[in-house]
Amino acid sequence: MATITERHTIKVTNLPRKYDLLELRQALDQEFGNSKSIDKTATCPIKKLYVSKSKTEAFIKYFNSEDAENIVNMDGHYQIYGHELNVKFARSKPK
């Protein structure tokens, strides 16, 4: 079955696994909850943040698809705890 790109949700991989789930959630919220926009003052309110128990990936859902698009389309590199992250749109199976 084909997958559909979920435009409100991003998938973050290559997470540093040596930190506990709470630390990862806080670091992800700090890195992706504040847009790295030109004016550096805009925020991207997060609707839901999920980190897998294996700590291999995280899914961050935004209220607005534009916020998710801004995060994915940024040329900057995202890091937490000095670890470079991979960011792309999440994909979901059709219902």
From TrEMBL:
Alphabetized InterPro entries for the sequence: Nucleotide-bd_a/b_plait_sf, RBD_domain_sf, RRM_dom
Keywords, sorted A to Z: RNA-binding
Annotated RRM domain residues: 8-92
Gene Ontology MF terms: RNA binding
Top-rank taxon: Eukaryota
Pfam families from the UniProt entry: RRM_1 (PF00076)
CDD domains cross-referenced by the UniProt entry: RRM_SF (cd00590)
Name under which the protein is recorded: RRM domain-containing protein
Organism: Acrobeloides nanus
